[in-house]
Design brief:
The chain is an alpha/beta fold. It contains 6 helices and 7 strands, in the order ββαββαβαβαβαα. Bound molecules: guanosine-5'-diphosphate (GDP).
Length: 201
Amino acid sequence: MDISKSRYELTAVKPDQYPDGDLPEIAFVGRSNVGKSSIINALLNRKGLARVSAEPGKTRGINFYNIDDTLYFVDLPGYGFAKVSKEEKASWGEMIETYLNTRKQLTAVIMLVDIRHAPTADDRMMYDWISERGLSHMVIASKADKISRGQIQGRLSEIRKILGLKADVNLIAYSSETREGTDRIWNELEKTVLEGVISES
Ligand code: GDP
């Protein structure tokens, strides 16, 4: 798989707008502003592919990024953004839920939380939901460059405890600024869910 051959494909708000075909999909979830667009750009080594929002919560649909016609990265709308109406929140919730509940091609979920903050009630709800559904997943603690090295393990332990992550769930400190964690994330994706896909190339 050649990750340099990645492109934005479409934005969907309803299932009939999702891409056709049966390529596996890796979904990214997290609160708005947690760094989803940035990690997608960093993992694909493409600066401007996913839009890094100046205005948090602006992404209104589910964005699909096609990687070498082999795999999709799927950027789900960020939740927990305070400055939107109740109606808008409900419609985002439904969009996320419908995708995660019904999408057969969904292969793994990457959930992001900000390493500096305790996961919120929204984060816990999201995480419970992912794990109860038995979806393959990992958790990324983003913006690791914003704290000192010495603080990282303590923050990770707290996140693990609050979300209730089992010992075998990967929790990775990550920074889109320094790219720390990028190789490990790709390795985990290859190991756990993409073996078939990646070894074809
Ligand atoms: P999204 O709303 O989850 O897609 O978040 P974005 O990727 O748009 O990032 C939100 C803001 O956080 C932007 O100003 C980014 O530059 C910043 N940001 C994202 N990831 C990191 C990171 O790892 N380190 C630092 N220092 N800033 C980050």
